[in-house]
């Protein structure tokens, strides 16, 4: 078996589940509303100065996370291309790294760690629990190294911490 075949058949995913103290409709808005996305997109210390949402099947949103000054203050853009949206239940999209105009960029050429695919499929599911609580699960797939999974997992966990804080305010 060639090394390329081994890498392509060894795809990894990550799954994170959080329970939020908010109803599904409110958690849903944190994925669909520009103002809400800008409150949580990006790891701790990062801000989100832009979220141009085209939240519909076939639509493509453009989101930006800005690094803190101590990390260089750079902007990193992503697109979210929506494949399926079931209101208050499920969002399926492909995340791509991009430039400020939404043109796709190769993560490796951007200097990101190896193992991050050009297309990162995401599935977000929402489940209403009692007492106006919501269970939300984020599944990302397509990674080819454990380091890429751990890097993305750490970033998404911090994003979800920020989402939880936003839902409380």
Structure description:
Helix 2 (24-32) packs across helix 3 and helix 3 crosses helix 4 (146-168). The protein contains four helices and seven strands. With 169 residues, the protein is of the alpha+beta class. The protein has one domain (3-168): START domain (Alpha-D-Glucose-1,6-Bisphosphate, Chain A, domain 4, 2-Layer Sandwich). 27% of the residues lie in helices and 38% in strands. The longest helix is centred in the last third of the chain and has 23 residues, at 146-168. The model is unreliable at 1-8 (pLDDT under 50). It has helices spanning 3-9, 24-32, 34-40, 146-168, and strands at residues 12-20, 47-52, 60-66, 75-86, 90-98, 120-129, 133-143.
In short:
27% of the residues lie in helices and 38% in strands. The protein is α+β, with helices and mostly antiparallel strands and 169 residues long.
